[in-house]
Amino acid sequence: MVQFKPELTNFLVFDLEAFVPPADRRRKTGPSLAVNPYRENHTLLGGVFYLCRPLTGEVVLDYAHHWMWNEGSEKEVVASLYRIFADMWSGLKMKKLFQADPVVCGVGISTFDMPFLFTKCLQYEVAPPDEIYDTLGKCRVLDLSVAGIGFVPTHNPILHPCSHNELADALLPERERKPTGKKVWDMIDAKDYDAVEKRCEGEVREMVDIAAKMFNCQCLRNTV
Asked: 76: domain CATH number?
């Protein structure tokens, strides 16, 4: 049975943003799957990270931002993001095998954020491949789009992951309806970087709230 030692129990909520060139935005895979780190000019722009130890109420990263336009290049951003995970593990050197591994949380995190970052880390050789795998591949991935299926009214004929908006509408009734504004790609085309940052942080904040509501997690709320 997994044990949760408060000072060693880490919960990381994050969201990444990527840029897809105009020519690839209407691929048959659909807009949510258009991004591919092996395609030319498909770029990891950065993201927002919230790291807490919910059983102690400690906030380690309070909606920390890392973006290409602030750090100089995609390579620098990838290295910065990798360090977040590496630092999280380095603080667990005294952890026993039966104690909880870090939990990483987000909507669609298992199909986009984690594999995309993993691939970029390999491409830029931020560490030896086996270290990258240990650092990223051994986190416990909590994909809210899957965990939230039972919380969202649906007429789907099969079990199917939920969207961020479906989860927020079902679990955050006080939430203002999300505006149907520009997509991140359009914001980047217009060089409206501030809008990208605000949108991404807003989504991460909602993910924290969704996770807290979904699991009735008072300890997570106490860190917000």
From this structure: 3.30.420.10
Position 216 in a domain: yes
Q: Is residue 1 part of a domain?
A: no
H helix and E strand count, the chain = 9, 5
217: containing domain? 6-221
Q: Is the pLDDT of residue 19 over 90?
A: yes
Chain center to CA of 173? 23
How far, in Å, CA of 20 to CA of 6, rounded?
A: 40
SS3 150: helix
pTM: predicted TM-score of the whole model, two decimal places: 0.93
Dist CA 136 CA 141 (whole Å): 10
Of the candidates 142, 172, 122, the residue with the CA atom closest to the CA atom of residue 14: 142
Name the residue with tokens 């924290």. 208
Q: How confident is the model at residue 140 (pLDDT cuts 50, 70, 90)?
A: very high
203 part of a folded domain: yes
Other CB atoms within 10 Å distance of the CB of residue 14? 27
Identify whether the C-beta of residue 35 lies closer than 8 Å to the C-beta of residue 21. Answer: no
